[in-house]
TrEMBL record:
This is Aminotransferase. Its cofactor is pyridoxal 5'-phosphate. Residues 36-386 form the Aminotransferase class I/classII large domain. Its EC number is 2.6.1.-. CDD domains: AAT_like (cd00609). One of its GO terms (molecular function) is transaminase activity. Keywords: Aminotransferase, Pyridoxal phosphate, Transferase. Belongs to the class-I pyridoxal-phosphate-dependent aminotransferase family. The keyword Transferase applies.
Length: 396
């Protein structure tokens, strides 16, 4: 195996300095080494991709759809995205120029941040928020500015936003709702109140709504509906149809901004995968695809209610999540309050893997994230192990 010439390492791109692997995946890899562990760590749906979606991808392969797609994706898929956004969220986008297909929401985020941020720019982020955002921002030489929302029920208020804008003069804001890790989402009124503040600025809004189909209670209200002229909307099929490994996301936004996003996307990946797009068309544009996501959503609600009830009874502080498939729970008083230490102790003693909250930014300290995208059997056993840990480690 070759050894790198040492001199080559002296002056690599400095925006990568200090960055490491995603802490969620680091802990998950450690947990995977424990025999008999139950992992509620990754945001990975336990459902399999529905058969009719798999068949659509197989048909694409059999039909020899093996050549380069257009950079922004097949026209048929962009039309399916436009129809999905219109049907679900009353959003109107032109498939030709205002939508691009990406290799998952992560590539969509990378493309949007790449065109929005120059070195030294600041971008606002409500916190706690998805840990990958910080690294994607820093890769672009920009600075993430966190707005701690713990005291406001994990919902950013217009007052907090106004103060952060005045103090930082940000270039953009990165939103995520329903939220990973908190499971909290925003009402129509809350979105409109934030949009009214941002409308007074020239900030770009990057709104990651990948969990929009997993909203419980009120219908999801997209930020792009409130402020379309400033918003780049990110979504995809990973969470709604359990297609995480298929890597199909998309971005929609104003044509002039999207021209830049499509250019960044082209330089990143050239084009998305044909069989994956074929499956995603089936997921987004058919009645069967609609039923798939509704069936999964109904099961997630049962799992959420079960986990929330069990953890609340054990003394965890649990704001009832109304979206995504996470519970963000405050560690009970008297137990290990360092959330990293708590999670490692729980893993070592009771073979249960939860994710520590501090990796999601300010406001996440002393919390743990539980993914209930697992079978009910695994969740039942996980709650038994958590109860055993709580009972066996009661403070004196």
């Amino acid at each position: 195996m070759p050894n790198t010439k040492p001199a080559l390492l002296k002056d690599l791109k400095h925006t990568y300095d200090g960055l490491g692997a995603n802490p969620i995946r680091v802990f998950d890899a450690e947990a995977s080494k424990v025999p008999g562990v139950i992992k509620l760590s990754l945001g990975e749906p336990d459902f399999n991709v529905p058969e009719h979606i798999k068949q659509a991808a197989i048909d694409s392969i059999v039909a020899n759809q093996s050549h380069y797609a257009p950079t922004p994706g097949w026209p048929a898929f962009r039309e399916a995205v436009a129809g999905f956004l219109q049907d679900r969220y009353d959003l109107t986008y032109d498939p030709n120029g205002e939508i691009t297909v990406t290799v998952g929401a992560t590539e969509a985020l990378h493309a949007c941040l790449d065109i929005a941020l120059n070195p030294g720019d600041k971008i606002l982020m409500p916190s706690p928020t998805f840990s990958l955002y910080d690294q994607l921002v820093r890769i672009n030489g920009a600075e993430p500015v966190y707005m701690n929302t713990e005291s406001t029920g994990f919902v950013l208020t217009p007052e907090q936003l106004e103060k952060a804008i005045a103090a930082n003069h940000p270039k953009a804001i990165l939103l995520n709702f329903p939220s990973n890790p908190t499971g909290v989402t925003y009402s129509k009124a809350q979105v409109q109140a934030l949009a009214a503040v941002i409308a007074k600025t020239d900030m770009i809004v990057i709104s990651d709504e990948i969990y929009s189909e997993l909203t419980y209670g009120a219908q999801h209200y997209s930020f792009a509906k409130a402020l379309p002229e400033q918003t780049l909307l990110i979504n995809g099929v990973s969470k709604s149809h359990a297609m995480t490994g298929w890597r199909i996301g998309f971005v929609a936004g104003p044509k002039e901004l999207m021209a830049k996003v499509i250019l960044a996307h082209a330089f990143n990946v050239t084009c998305p995968s044909n069989p994956a797009m074929a499956g995603a068309i089936e997921a987004l544009s058919t009645e069967a695809g609609r039923k798939d996501s509704l069936a999964m959503k109904a099961e997630y609600i049962k799992r959420r209610d079960f986990v929330v009830a069990k953890m609340t009874a054990l003394g965890f502080g649990v704001p009832n999540p109304n979206g995504a498939f996470y519970v963000f729970a405050k560690i009970p008083a008297g137990y290990i309050q360092d959330d990293d230490a708590f999670c490692y102790d729980l893993l070592r003693k009771n073979k249960l893997a939860l994710i520590s909250g501090n990796g999601f930014g300010p406001g996440g300290e002393h919390y743990v994230r539980v993914s209930y995208a697992a079978s009910m059997a695994d969740l039942e056993e996980a709650m038994k192990r958590l109860a055993a840990y709580i009972n066996e480690n009661k403070p004196a």
